[in-house]
Each structure stands twice: as C-alpha cells, then as structure tokens.
Amino acid sequence: MNRTKAEGDQNVRQNALAERFSICLQLVGDEFFRAMTQCYVRERLPRTPMLFEYGDAFATFVSNFEPARELAYLPDVARLEYAVGAAYHAADAAPLPLDFLRALPYERLDYDPLLSDRPLPAHRRRASFLRLRSDKD
Fold first, then answer.
1. Do 15 and 33 touch, CB atoms closer than 8 A?
2. What span, in angstroms and rounded, lies between the C-alpha atoms of 29 and 75?
3. Do residues 10 and 38 touch, judged by C-beta distance below 8 A?
4. DSSP assignment string, 115-129
5. Is residue 17 a contact partner of residue 58, using CB atoms and an 8 Å limit?
6. Where does the pLDDT of residue 106 fall: very low under 50, low under 70, confident under 90, or very high at 90 and above?
7. For FRET with 75, which of 6, 61, 107, 116 sits at 20 to 30 Å CA-CA?
8. For residue 31, what are the CA distances in angstroms to 34, 35, 55, 89, 91?
9. pLDDT of 18 above 80
10. DSSP 9-46
C-alpha cells in the first residue's frame, strides 16, 4: 500500500473515532485527541469494514495511554460513548407482550419518575431489585 493511501486510511479512522468519541474529543481538545487517535489507529486496524464498530478497544487504549494518565475519568467516558453507539446500532428487541405486562402484580412494576412527583426511596428500589432477582433463581 502506498504512503498516501495509508495516511488517508488513518485519517478516515481518526475521523470515525472523533465522531464515535465526541465527548472525549470535547474533554481533551482537538490537538490532544488527534495525537491520541493517531497512536491508536497505528496500533489497531478495524476488525470489520463497518467503521461504526471501530474503537471497541479505545477505552482500554486510553487507560494505558501515558499522556492521558492524569485523566482517570477518560477511559470510562470512552466506554460509555462506545456502549451508547453499540446500543444505537444494535438490533431492536421484541417488545414484551401486553398480556405479560398486564399479568404483572402492581408491586412488581418499576417506579417511573415521570409518572410521580414523589421519588421512590432507595431502600424500596433495592428491595424490589432483590425480589426480582430471587424470583429468577
């Protein structure tokens, strides 16, 4: 592969990372982000031709990237951004059947803050979660 094409490919991958990890880009600035992603794209080739999947190891890379060591939150932000993108591109799940939802006892329905002006106390949320878990076991 000639040098111009290789540089073009790296630039495309850097741009894909900038779109996928836009919050990280905003947090560290363009110059730092470009330098960091330049190192990443040299080390990691895409595993698929779909660039929206590129960057699956970016958070791990960031956690080991020496110039970003002081930014302890950055790998977690990158993980969150990748997870949001993965959820966006994931296949839609089938909705639960209405009969199933109607059959649930009222006590088992989860709290929705949009439907109430009173917050559900944390101890009730935890008890509800533990009850649901014990029902599955």
1. no
2. 15
3. yes
4. G-SSPPPHHHHHHHH
5. yes
6. low
7. 6
8. 5, 6, 19, 29, 35
9. yes
10. HHHHHHHHHHHHTHHHHHHH-HHHHHHHHHHHHHH---
Place of tokens 């836009």: 22
pTM flag (> 0.85): no
Would you place residue 111 in the very low, low, confident or very high pLDDT band (cuts 50, 70, 90)? Answer: low
What pLDDT, in 10s, does the model give residues 24-81?
Answer: 999 999 999 999 999 999 998 888 888 888 899 999 999 999 999 999 999 999 999 9
The encoded tokens of residue 17 equal 């990372």
Question: How far, in Å, are 71, 77, 100, 114, 120 from residue 117 at the CA level?
Answer: 37, 31, 27, 8, 10
Residue appearing with tokens 């790296």: 10
Closest by CA to 38, choosing from 64, 12, 59, is 12
